[in-house]
Structure formats: C-alpha cells, structure tokens
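Dock protoporphyrin IX containing FE; give full complex structure.
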Amino acid sequence: MDDPQPVDAPLTQSATFLVLTADHSPTALHTIRLALASVPEITKNISIRHPDGRLTCTVGIGSFLWDGVTRPDPRPSELHPFREIRGAVHTAPSTPGDILLHIRAERRDLCFELERQLMDKMAGTVHVVDETVGFRYFDARDLLGFVDGTANPVGPAVPRSVLVTEEDDEAGAGGSYVVVQKYVHDLERWRALKVEEQEAVIGRTKLENAEVEDAPAGEQQSHKSLAVVADEHGNEHDIVRDNMPFGSPGSGQFGTYFIGYSRRLWVVERMLERMFVGDPPGKHDRLLDFSRPLTGSTFFAPSLTQLTRLGGMRGLQGVFQIFSTNVSLCSNGGNGG
Ligand code: HEM
C-alpha cells in the first residue's frame, strides 16, 4: 500500500482546522496542486526548527475539487459531498469545502506558521469557509467536561480503521475519508443538568471516565451507544476521532470541533444518522440538545504518495495548459490588434 498521510498522528496540544473553497480555473488548479503537494516538505522545513513540536498536516480534498486536482487518477469509490441529515428535532447541515487542512502540533506557533506559508502559496485561489483553532483542555476533556477520544482504536487497529486498502478500492488505497463538523454548545443549559444526567447523555462517568451500562434496546440510548456502528455480520467498525475544544469565554462561544477519519465513509454517515434520527427513530442523541453543528463537510485524504505526485507530471501539464492559453491569448490579441 502507498504511504499514508499522518492521519494517525497522536493527540497534540494545539490544532488548526482550515476549510477552504477553491477556484476551479486551470491556473488556480495548478497553483493549488503545487501547494498541496508541497505540504510534506514545508512541514519538514518548519519541524526541523522545533523537532519536539510534533507538527503534522493532513490534507483532505472535497468531492467537487477531486477530479480537477487529481485527474487522471480515478475517484475514491465512496467520495461524495456531506449529505445533510434531518432528524425530527435536529439537523446536521452540509456546508461547502474543497480543501481541509488539519494541522496539529504541540505548539501553537508551529500550526500558525504552517498555515501562514500554505495560505501564501495558495493566495488568490482559495476562500476561507471556516478556520478554527483548537486546544487540548486538561486531560483531553471537551468543554462539556468529559474525556473525549477514549474509545479510539490504538496500535495496529488504527490503520485498520482509517486506511482504505487495495482490496477495498484501488483508487483510494492508502487514503482515508475525513468528516468534520463544528459544534457550539449551550453550556448554561448543560450545566443545569445533574452530573448523573450528563453521564447518561454521554454514556461515561464524568470524573473517572468509566463506561455507563447501555440502556435496553428501544429506550433512550447514550451518545456512546448511538456512535457504535456494526455491519450486517455484526462486526463493529471504529473510526479515529481527534476532536478539539475551541472557543472564547469573552464572547460566550464554547465548542467542539469534531473530526473523524475512517476507512469507510458509510460508517461515519451511519453514526450521524443514529445520532440525529435516533435508534429507535425519534430518540435522538441528547448530546444534540446541547450541541449545535454549524458546519458539515466530507473530504478524502489521499495517500502521501498520491499527494506529493500532484506536484509532478500534472503540474507540468498545468504549465503547458497555461502556456498554450497564453499563446492563444497573445495570438488572438495580435489578430485583434
Ligand atoms: C464517544 C463527545 C460528536 C462519534 C464520545 C465520548 C465523548 C464524546 C465524551 C466518550 C469518550 C470516548 O470514547 O471518546 C463528543 C462531542 C461531540 C461528539 C462533545 C460533538 C459535540 C461525535 C460525532 C461522532 C462521534 C459527530 C460521529 C459521527 C463517537 C464515537 C465514540 C464517541 C465513535 C466512541 C463510542 C464507543 O465505541 O464507545 N464522544 N462526540 N461523536 N463519539 Fe462522540
């Protein structure tokens, strides 16, 4: 299998989630290809200045941009835009996104510098849809006060859960589907619940992070239970989450940036359906009564090999394309003048 991007990077103290839309003109696509292909090299150039900073950047490409930047490579079989999910009470909206940069490091300055250099490289070709700066909060807690990320797979189970294999789909091999949603919390209402009520919503105890027993089938399920997805053979499928708190007490904003990496897009989509529609339908995830998604986008993080290849032959094809466009513009200009 091709080398993957650092989708399995360990939890860090800081992260930037940058979602962009892109111009699709040939010149813009050429600039974007070169910029995305240079991400591993720029990351290395910055990392060497602070080797303990564990700087990584994962690039995700959205469904609408995929063909433009990767042609003639085929599309990963499940890649499509985020599909809105409408439950009886809560909706998961679908919002635009052509490029995702998931930048992680132990230090905020490293994330900042990488984002700055990449934005410089793509200047004039991309538009910011959302930029969220996340921070690690105490012992990996979300702003609701619960430890977040416990059930993530570890060790060899990580690549098994997040990386598409050649048997799954040759076009996506070594890559990973990525879904992001930016949630804001109503902390005042959440704090009005008793701790036992909060624990029933989440499905874990608050202080010790121990699992609370699942409710019997048909009754209100916790977030933890609704987020468990099995296939028709009863096999459970994990995803890797690296959620981050974000916010600003001064402006009263408190949120969780959800990011999930998965080998199979349908697994994340099924989790979202179970949360928003409920199981049984009507009994939605009560976490949503206190957490509202503002965004929702799906990307594919290609293998590192495919990413760096974007700067190669296709880059040259882009140059030829621009060159021939300019030549024909010049000759048109000559004819006209
Ligand atoms: C579990 C918080 C959104 C998938 C958990 C846990 C917490 C949590 C505290 C229990 C500890 C753990 O295992 O990590 C949140 C918050 C969210 C959010 C604050 C947003 C406001 C989502 C979304 C998904 C998801 C949108 C999937 C689409 C999962 C999964 C588990 C989990 C798979 C582990 C279930 C298990 O196997 O025990 N979440 N979550 N979460 N969450 Fe979320």
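Observed: The first helix runs from residue 26 to 37.
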